Amino acid sequence: MRPNHARRSVAVFPGSFDPITNGHLDIIQRSLSVFGSVIIAILVNPEKRPLFTVEERVDIIRETYRREARVRVDTFSGLLVDYAMKVGASAIVRGLRAISDFEYEFQMALMNRRLNPRIETVFLMAPESYSYLSSRLVKEVFQLGGRVHELVPPVVERRLKEKHGASSAAAAVRRRRRRVR
Ligand code: PNS
Fold first, then answer.
1. How many whole angstroms from 115 Cα to the centroid of ligand 1?
2. pTM of this prediction?
């Protein structure tokens, strides 16, 4: 790869990021050694019931990367390859944690290639220490009172606590209302 090309090249790192974890951060860091800039693209999916709204996820990621000019955050809906073309990206980056990720990722990569052969999917390997890490497990562990400190950036831990506090307060109000009725 020519150095100028590497400096200019844009990659899209798509996902739900509900919430972003240290595993994602690792993949973004690795992407920056290959691509000039990375766009973290959050899928807007009305069929899912996420813990964090799209706006909250954008805020969290913006705060995490406020000092890194080469990382941007955006949202998209519709086909990922269409979004990648629109923003001038030449590649889609996906992280692989374990062999179990491979089948799903391979299927998506081939479908995306069929849809648009000009967009290349690049797989980067997460370190073994994060092979078990997922947004779903972070939420589950946190909601059950477990420690997520080393698994997510500080802003995510803070937002989880705020959300948990807000939902406990709302539940207490609901309980009180039920008692009054
Ligand atoms: O964080 P996730 O849930 O693993 O991310 C999945 C994502 C967003 C990469 C995938 O669902 C996606 O690309 N959706 C966009 C719709 C699309 O392009 N589908 C056809 C290609 S498989």
1. 13
2. 0.91
Give the number of residues written for the chain: 181
Annotated catalytic residue: which of 48, 49, 147, 177?
48
Quote the ligand 1 centre to 5 CA distance (angstroms). 27
Write out the chain's pLDDT in tens, 181 residues. 555 666 679 999 999 999 999 999 999 999 999 999 999 999 999 899 999 999 999 999 999 999 999 999 999 999 999 999 999 999 999 999 999 999 999 999 999 999 999 999 999 999 999 999 999 999 999 999 999 999 999 999 999 999 988 666 566 666 677 776 6
Sign of torsion over alpha carbons 126, 129, 130, 131? positive
What angle do helix axes 54-64 and 154-180 make, rounded to 10 degrees? 150
Within 6 A (CB) of ligand 1 lie 14-16, 43, 79-80, 108, 111-112
Whether 24 is a known active-site residue: answer yes
